[in-house]
């Protein structure tokens, strides 16, 4: 999945509105952020095989250190620990980051063919194969993204024009990157794919920038009431 991962990051904001959306998007995309690095290092492998699924031509040969269930849990614990270093008392955000990292494996399990390992080494490979149907992928993942957007927009509101423009441009670019996958030319080799995939690192930074120009709706209401009270007195 792609926008499905973004959806759970957006939804997490409703549970911890004072935490930057960039943190949650980074956690939700976490396994895909480190995956291209492992490809460039030659630790994991992928090749192009047109028709292997309807939605993507990528055949994931080996990615146990980034995309196995056991390692997703390990990466989730590491993510929660990193949050703890900065927000020691924010147990909720720590827990959400852990859940978001692990949710990446769960959502990929739904979309991938049976190529998802449970642990590094001699492991069974699983996957429900949502990517075998382009319409089903668009419906399921699109609905998840719409729900995530609804929850985020219900929780926050822009404080200036950037809060709207930057956020909706982020949504548009993310949607374009996702929806164009079945018809995009395949990468020529693993290295090219890995280098292009590093672009995904911009999405959490972009989300954090947009979110910094938005406020929690409850804070906005409280500020408005305080202003009215000062005016009346």
What labels describe this entry?
about 230 residues, two-stranded antiparallel sheet, globular, mainly alpha
Could you walk me through the main structural features you see in this protein, from its secondary elements to its overall organization?
The chain is mainly alpha-helical. The chain has one domain (3-232). The chain has eleven helices and six strands. The strands form three sheets. It has a two-stranded antiparallel sheet. A two-stranded antiparallel ribbon has the order 3-4. A two-stranded antiparallel ribbon has the order 5-6. A hairpin with a 7-residue loop joins β3 and β4. The longest helix has 22 residues, at 134-155. It is globular and about 50 Å long. The model is unreliable at 224-229 (pLDDT under 50).
């Amino acid at each position: 999945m792609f926008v499905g991962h973004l959806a759970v990051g957006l939804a997490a904001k409703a549970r911890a509105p004072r935490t930057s959306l960039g943190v949650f998007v980074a956690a939700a995309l976490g396994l895909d952020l480190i995956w291209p690095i492992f490809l460039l290092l030659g630790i994991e492998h992928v090749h192009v095989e047109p028709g292997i699924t309807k939605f993507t031509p990528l055949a994931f040969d080996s990615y146990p250190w980034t995309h196995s269930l056991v390692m997703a849990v390990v990466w989730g614990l590491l993510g929660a620990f990193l949050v703890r270093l900065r927000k020691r008392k924010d147990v909720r955000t720590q827990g959400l980051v852990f859940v978001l990292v692990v949710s990446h494996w769960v959502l990929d399990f739904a979309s991938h063919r049976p190529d998802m390992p449970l642990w590094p080494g001699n492991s069974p490979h699983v996957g429900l194969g949502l990517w075998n149907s382009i319409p089903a992928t668009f419906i399921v993942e699109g609905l998840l993204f719409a729900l995530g957007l609804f929850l985020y927009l219900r929780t926050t509101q822009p404080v200036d024009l950037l809060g709207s423009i930057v956020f909706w441009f982020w949504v548009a670019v993310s949607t374009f990157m996702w929806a164009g996958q079945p018809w995009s030319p395949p990468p020529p080799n693993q290295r090219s794919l890995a280098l292009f995939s590093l672009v995904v690192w911009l999405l959490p930074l972009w989300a954090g920038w947009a979110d910094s120009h938005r406020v929690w709706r409850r804070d906005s209401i409280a500020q408005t009431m305080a202003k009215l009270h000062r005016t009346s007195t």
